[in-house]
Protein 1
Amino acid sequence: MSDPIIKIENMNKWFGDFQVLKNIDLSVEKNKKIVVCGPSGSGKSTLIRCINRLEEHQEGTIIVDGTELSENTKNIEAIRAEVGMVFQQFNLFPHLSILDNCTLAPIWVKKMPKAKAEELALEHLERVQISDQAQKFPGQLSGGQQQRCAIARALCMEPKIMLFDEPTSALDPEMIKEVLDAMVNLAKAGMTMIVVTHEMGFAKEVADEVIFMDEGMIVERAETKTFFANPKSDRTKLFLSQIL
Amino acid sequence: MKNISFFQIQSKSPLTNMYMGSTLLSIAIFDVFVSSFLSVNITSFLPQNISTFLPLIIGFIGLGILRMEYTGIRLLDKVNKNINTNNFNAFLTLLIIFVVIKATPPALSWMILDANISGDSKEACTGTGACWTYIKVWFRRFMYGMYPNELHWRINSAFILVIALGFVGYFFKENLKKYLALYYVVIYPIIAFLIIYYLISGGSFGLVWVETGAWGGLSLTFIVSFFCLIFCFPLGMVLALGRRSNLPAVRYISVGYIEFWRGVPLITVLFMSSVMFPMFLPEDFFMDKLVRVIIAITLFEAAYCAEVIRGGLQALPRGQYDAAKSLGMGYWKMHIFVILPQALKLVIPGIANTFLALVKDTPLIFVVGLAEIAGMLALAKTNPKWLGFAMEGYIFAAIIFWIICYAMSKYSYNLENKYKTER
């Protein structure tokens, strides 16, 4: 197997006195799809926010694509540019049109010519099926459309890894499917993905492995089939019995 | 619950109420109108105190009857809904109407009917009203201060040039749009300074030197406000960002700066700038008083701007920062393209507020001997030939300031609407 693209060793993180992440060891290989699940407050979101250093960890090492993340990391922006992220609340830029949302970072961070960036953006918007909304503003779109736009925006940076932080939790049930479809397509195209979600259907369909977290620890990590068929720990069994 | 009016007049048709109510109200207003405009008291047969309060009582009853029933007449129902909802509101409405009617005739006669504008000396003002001749004679002084009369074209043309350059941004081609901020923050102030320096100050290109002590009047108000506005905004922006910085040194310097300037009165700052500041400078170093004053006001107002802008920065959800960072944007790119455009849009009303206050603070420069429009008034009213016209002068200045400030606030509303996007 190839070297892991994300390697986390012995990582600890505190918010004040409260330890949110305890001894996290995790390595993710290229092109793998990992689903992270667990009860709320278990540190799932914090874990993936640490991967592109939106949160800083206090102990242990995180290596993303060969670069260790630490206070001394000079080119944190370069790493973030390679790690796309989709948020629960979409976080589109409301003052820019959908197209400008998608082209902003390619033009200013990757120094791409404007015409090329727009072409790329339209391609990715087409991929998530909202290219016809390109001239509108985020406020004029439905939640599902906004979230798909957020996916397209992240894809425009042509990242090596995509992080999803509960992408469907703020959506109406009707709109969840369209976003999940976009994510399934992305998974099939071979993207490395780490997805925090409660959508177990999605996990079963695309995930290679599932990680179950509770109280800041990784309780169980298993192949998707094994995870759902024979979970090892009692905590996982309890969680699955409640969620399924 | 029944209608809580204490005049329980029962009637069959709502129109009867309407006719009765409006008749009573009209009588009340007519009474006040006649007594204040024509000095005829139609209720003089009554004891004096009753006669004084009678219109109020009649009008009050009239309004009470008017709102007793829904008539279906649009205008009337609208009036009832807005200014005649209960006894207290009706009373206030009447009081305001009467005060306005009472105040109109004296104001009107003083300002227009009995006023003088002809002639060019104090003797022309014979009436009991305002003496607008005073304003007319002194008009050039109020506009240009002690600037030599024959050189006023230099001020005018400098202003026209500066204003014209201000509009240049609208005509920028698409590919130059990205330099717009650079133009307005850096290039425009420099060009404006050069224009004002060479044209109004003179001293080269064959123009006679006019020292800044001679500048004054409205043109000085404009010059001071203009430079303070364009410099204090970027400075405030930097301070606001500095106050939220992660770097302790930057943060403490910004906090210290803001708290220092917000803690001292402007008038002391102006005194310091003109009296104390030169003492700290090397002897051969000279900085014009006007420049010192502009710098002082700029530094002072920047602290206020900074706090307003910081309010906007804090109103943005954290997700915007996260999203920008996750796309690989560094601190400056994140702020220039994502954070500041949204934050500044949010603070347009607050910034407009600060700017209006700044314009109205400029008369304070009189304390260091610079006479902008209000300062010129103060000088003019002590002129022995023209004693006793302070009122006209201050009304004139008030009108001018009101026009400037109203224009600014209108403009800020326009900006607000222009940049309004749905969230």
Protein 2
Amino acid sequence: MAISFNLNGSAVSVQSEPDTPLLWVIRDEIGLTGTKFGCGKAQCGSCTVHVNGSAVRACQTPVSSVSGKKVATVESLSADNSHPLQKAWIKHQVPQCGYCQSGQLMSAAALLAKNKNPNDSEIDAAMAGNLCRCGTYNRLRAAIKDAAAEMRRA
Amino acid sequence: MTTTRREFLKTSTSAAGVAVLGMYVPGFGGKEANAAGSLHTPNVWVHIADNNEITLISHMSEMGQGVHTSLPALIAEELNVDITKVKVATAAADPAYVNGLLGAQITGGSTAIRDAWEKLRIGGAQVRTMLVEAAANKWGVAASSLKAENGVVSGGGKSATYGELASAAASVPVPKEVKLKDPSQFNIVGKAIPRLDTPAKVNGTAEFGIDVKVPGMVYASVEMSPVIGGQAKSFDDSAVRGMPGIVGVYKINGGVGIVADSYWRAYKARKALKVDWDLGPGANLSTKGMWDGTKAAEKSVAPIKVRPDVGNANDALQGAAKVLKAEYYTQHMAHQPLEPMNMVAIVSGDKCELIGPTQFQQGAQGFAAAAIGLKPENVSVRTTYLGGGFGRRIVTDFVVQAAELSKASGRPVKVLWSREDDMKNDWYRPQSLNRMEGGLDASGKPVAIKHQISSQSITQVLFGLPKNTLDPFMVEAAVAPYDVPNTSHDLIIHDTGIRVGYLRAVSHTMNCFANESFMDELAHAAGKDPVKYRMELLSKEPRFANVLKIAADKAGWGKKLPAGRAMGVALMEGYGTYMAQIAEVSVSGGDIKVHKVTVACDCGRMVNPGIVRQQLESGIVYGLSHALYSDITVTNGRVDQNNFNDFRILRTNETPVMDITLVDSNEKPGGTGEPSTSLIAPAVANAVFTATGKRLRSMPFAKALKSA
């Protein structure tokens, strides 16, 4: 039975079994591959997407649970890197291998949607579930502050 | 050291009969066709299309270390093109792209810049010269009257783009000698230009292996032996066959692969699969047993000299005013790049195409070919971005699985491992027991140091290095730079029975941990300041002395710190790079908090200081994770850890502030992808000693502190 939800502003209808994690529906059935698989157990944050505006781990979210909801992936930020977070990520040269960065960006975007001026401990709390094996943590913290400043000015 | 290593790998790989070297596959991974018109290849580094689209070839895989920016920078510098307007592609498996420092087409060993420094600049200059020659022939003028700048050859009122000249240039003989720019003329090299791969890595479009999709592709998940080295005797897939989307179930080397029309269906079906295992000889392995075996080997195995003894350490120890002994233990470690192992294989008739993340193109080609009975030249490799490598993707076990399952199912197959698969089936960094003995004279000066390393040889396991042979990847940074009149350095090679692999910084980590912790112990025994003590022993080592002084000054070594805080120092040369690190820590309630790390680094001339800085930061976080928390333990042949819940790595809030000074230098370039990884453990251990009086001699420290 088809499950319908809104993905990055468009209505989608998918055929995967209801228990299939949203991650695999987005990646393999729909074909949007920016959202990454890192651990499958909500331990690393690589698969972070927004469901109705909140950051969730898509690897532990059955597709049935997003029926009728709004899902947003890294592709929703912008294709031309014009989102303040993307600009800040480039300015601070955050990514190395880049594999975790979609999840990092989506956790950061969820934080900034609620808090336009996060301090270090608020950033740490929001980003603690996102691992980076290349160690880009200090740069992404600086980038979040820069992006927040731009969003406050906007 | 580099010459030794190169010669060494050349001979050892051929001696082992590893059939992976010296194969030829034309092109660069099957992506030549494009709408830009014909593609011209003046040499192996540069492809120019008629429409002036220029592709520079990186012979190294991009795994986060920035080679898709730093290597093209070397070509672009001499080719005189705008680096922001070129494309970059990873080379196919081809002898032309062999890493001259390793003797095989391997990305690793912090070799990229050191291998490429002259080679790629010459490559760029050759093509520039050929383009000018082509224009000179076309216009009937002297080449010396023309200049090549910004993708255009011009002179005498005429001009043509590189694209317009590429076809003719490709048939100009490759010049034997070319003149390279004087460094004072560099426009790209030496500048912190932004990475070319960043834009694609912030909007989800960067293509990693896991993202590859080809027509008709199916997905595989492999149930591997619970004990590494075991094999499936038989399996019962009756409960699997009725599940939706299953394509087939196949016995392969080391396990049973389930192939389905989606990854999730293949993975989920593993729970319904019953396998009867032959667990093999590893079924009784345990961490304690492996340490016991290493200690027994210390008594039974004849040591190999790391270098000829200097003076006579035993005699000097006899006459010493004070003698210290210490043992340092470095634990097994897993690489754990965030992108799990994966590969796409398309086997069709007598050909196979591999697409995915690898650090060893020729290995992927050769081992896949051998596994499915093809000629190596019929196996092509296209390398995607790697979601981290750290040495894990030098091994090709997951590549072979993809080839086997594509052949068995007759379909293009993407093999994808779970995190647990990756945790339990790694090629682990070996354990190491480093035994130190030192003697001080009455003034506290060291008169003798003995260092004995007992560990496992990765090069024996992966490349068939003959036994009882010095493995250079076990003795990196084994000899400390200090002026000590009597020293001995011995290596005991012991195979613990677990499989091992090269992990970022390899043996620098254990050897630097031992050397720099012990130097600290000697300083404290002598009642001397650890920085001053080291400095007094570095009068013949100006590059070491310089980075130590800079780091100490920048960190404010000796200044009054907030209550409970202390600093620790470490010093090392690795990959031609000289470095000092000073860690500022505090300890409360059994938790070690690293507040700040001050780094001074002299890596010679830099191609891209921005990337160098990234790499130093990265190595410190990677090394600090392993120093403090990460652990791999084995019980009954099974790795105990599963996922990031029980294999702990550093998080945002645990990451120290880093103050990095890059030393201006005209020395030849050193490698920077790995060395910073190794200094952080002794720097932290030395700081913890000053803060608490507790000496940490085994990693991970969080565990060691509980029993200290």
